[in-house]
């Protein structure tokens, strides 16, 4: 795992009066531990190297003990946690590499470049493994869509993702877009990339073989992204001129494209012993991690590093985060071939050091003067680890005010509610409405393998030359996470896998991106602990491994922390693309049915945002055994070709899921929903483990016996047809005849599709002020 | 009230990667030029401003440069007064 975030740093002005280690963000205790690891006091350059490597984002010093509890092995997994990306075998000698990563803080500062370099960074993680990137998904979270700040961020981030992805020639096929007030000052930009490789090309980020050469290729090194350590420059040189210390990295997708092609050629021709991209902490991170993984050392000749600027100090070269650079380990007899490949792709290339057997990262200056010597392990696997304290918040709940009538949960509108109007309002909610405004800015189809882009559910990308396809999705549930971080994480894993499974694809593994607040705050650390526990429980129940991911902590602003946000990414394998099931109603007279059943609780739902939540209403719980059985049933049903369509019931509940099936298929439906708890819960509740399916009338009996065998409730809702969505509500136990006598427990939904479509299509542009 | 004409030059800050400049520089060998280096690409905005004095007009331009023409995180800008006759002639 790698992390691309850093905590807020002290202001430069404070530096002069502060000891250097503190100015670099290290505590007095940490300075003492560093002295213990080295057996002496570190010099300034070594201190700079420790400060970046012992930051949360490189060392996982707060989260590592938690991440160890995740299930990290599974069938077909050929590279997992600890590598640049997880890799899972998919047969035919092929494997898929995928990973989610955050670029939150850079995107808050400079949305376009932050998002663009986020895409560039995750793509490097993928091709470093030897995989050709075939798809990008972006999960974006912003504050109030009507605020000027959010609009500027949305526009910049969306242009940045598209700008890099479109230019580098990798399709952006899907993702997630959500708005919540807690992201106002701290937007989240999580990017997932997926790549395909021949298994024999799998490349490790290690530096084996003392005597091998350490080669840097790609862009020259400048002063980009020396943010955290610019204090060192100020302290050492008395130069606080911000013009000289740019902290913003600028992405160059065209250089990124050359880097992809050169790297894949080097790998395919077997010219490399190891390969690592340069991201956070630059050269320092790449040399110490590759050496530590191989149990070797590396001696660097600092002056050999190609530079973009003059007068760079040693520490600037060592920790620069200039984009589009790669570190390769090369046998001496192959260096000429490597240089030839890099030159042909127009990339600067230089031998900057050698692999040694002493276990140290050594930095040599002019005339071989030793500027720094640090054990590689002290910077990486043996970095400091904290056992932080977690404490759940003290809640004041479940105590109604004296004399207040006890409100039945879910006691929201019954008779008199106009569910059609609620549906229109939900479809137009910026969290549920059409994403066309965003996806229209992305090239979804470059590479000509995209079968389904991000418009409807999971993305589907075929594998050329085979009948197979990869299905990919990314989901989160921050509204539920805000109320219960454990449940938020469990339901994100369940929803994301379900979104893959409904297409007929078998999930291969899970990647996670944990976006949380300051881990030194007991409540924030408790949230993180609960979320990791949730991911672990859900993955074990569904038989899936966590293949890698990323942690972004310190997501806080003057207005408080973001809600706990567990972003999950899943890639699945569809063996036969001819069996792909779409979330779209297809043929008139097909039977519509619901698999699973609703459970009480409207807490954390979008409906509660609109209608007002009942105090203390909890989000509906999840039964992981049932979820697992449901997913197995869906795979059985698609394998036997029973399903004409399948759609997950998610945000906005059953009613929105049905409306989406109708809108996307361009055909209406005439349905009847039985109300067990309350109409609002049945129609708009977001209880998990439910899927709307449609089958040909002739397949109904087969589906029914399949469902009966798996213990999953199956309820027939009605038939597809017409150009309206009509949903009648009937009481539990009511027969059709009773319904005709007016036993409906609330007004029915009866809306023309074009009214629903207008609401759905205009929702997002209207919310962000881009309605034309 | 008079009209003043200015030009605003917007340039990537020193040290900020400039992919356009790099692309231009990368093309030089194709033209057989090897004497040119450190190419940086920015942009130039020309505008006329009504104001009581050149100072007042310039203040408006400087505000626009900072808030609209340039991204102050990665770009620097400078404002220059231009001679009016050039514009008159252009009409």
Strand order of the largest sheet of chain A: 8-10-7-11-9-12-13
**CATH homologous superfamily assignment of the domain at 12-69 and 200-379 in chain A:** PurM-like C-terminal domain
Strand content of chain B: 25-35%
Distance between the termini of chain B: 21 Å
Broad CATH class of chain B:
Alpha Beta
The share of residues in helices of chain A is: 25-40%
CATH architecture descriptor name of the domain at 12-69 and 200-379 in chain A: Alpha-Beta Complex
Please explain how this structure is put together.
The complex is a heterodimer of chains A (772) and B (91). Chain A is an alpha+beta fold and 772 residues long. Among the domains of chain A are: 12-69 and 200-379, Phosphoribosyl-aminoimidazole Synthetase, Chain A, domain 2 (Alpha-Beta Complex), CATH 3.90.650; 582-772, Phosphoribosyl-aminoimidazole Synthetase, Chain A, domain 2 (Alpha-Beta Complex), CATH 3.90.650. Chain A has a seven-stranded mixed beta sheet with strand order 8-10-7-11-9-12-13. In chain A, a hairpin with a 6-residue loop joins strand 14 (450-452) and strand 15 (459-462). Chain B is of the alpha+beta class. Chain B has one domain (2-29, 37-90): Phosphoribosylformylglycinamidine synthase subunit PurS (Mth169, Chain: A), CATH 3.30.1280.10. Chain B contains three helices and three strands. A three-stranded antiparallel beta sheet of chain B has the order 2-1-3. The longest helix of chain B has 16 residues, at 54-69. The mean pLDDT of chain B is 88. The chains are: A alpha+beta (772), B alpha+beta (91). The interface between A and B is medium-sized, with 22 and 15 residues.
